Amino acid sequence: MTNFSINKKADNYKKNKGDKKDDGKTESTAEGTNDEAEMSSKWSLQELRAEYDRIGLDYDEIFKNVKLLCIKTLMAVEPQITTAMRAAKNRN
Questions:
Q1: DSSP string covering 32-86, please?
Q2: Using CA atoms, how far apart are residues 90 and 28, in angstroms rounded to an integer?
Q3: Which among 90, 5, 70 has a CA at the least distance from the CA of 41?
Q4: pLDDT tier for residue 26 given thresholds of 50, 70 and 90
Q5: From CA 55, how far away is CA 52, in angstroms rounded?
Q6: For residue 78, what pLDDT is reported?
Q7: Residue 24 gets which letter from DSSP?
Q8: Contact between residue 48 and residue 69 where contact means Cβ atoms under 8 Å apart
């Protein structure tokens, strides 16, 4: 279960309006509000990038490391995946 699956059931969860602005970006104000300061509970990647820039984090470097982590994780389980795929193929 993901954080989103859990959080969306929280009493204070604020759904994203999903409105497109003139510049094509999605507006992430909370549904049912007119107050742009009241943000939804789920950010777009554009908003995350802006927040990282605001607090001095390197968005591209962080996502490069996330990609490397995903690759290394898949490499670690490759033998088990290969074995399971061969076993499934031979069952048919």
A1: T---TTSB-SS--HHHHHHHHHHHT--HHHHHHHHHHHHHHHHHHHHHHHHHHHH
A2: 49
A3: 5
A4: low
A5: 5
A6: 96
A7: S
A8: no
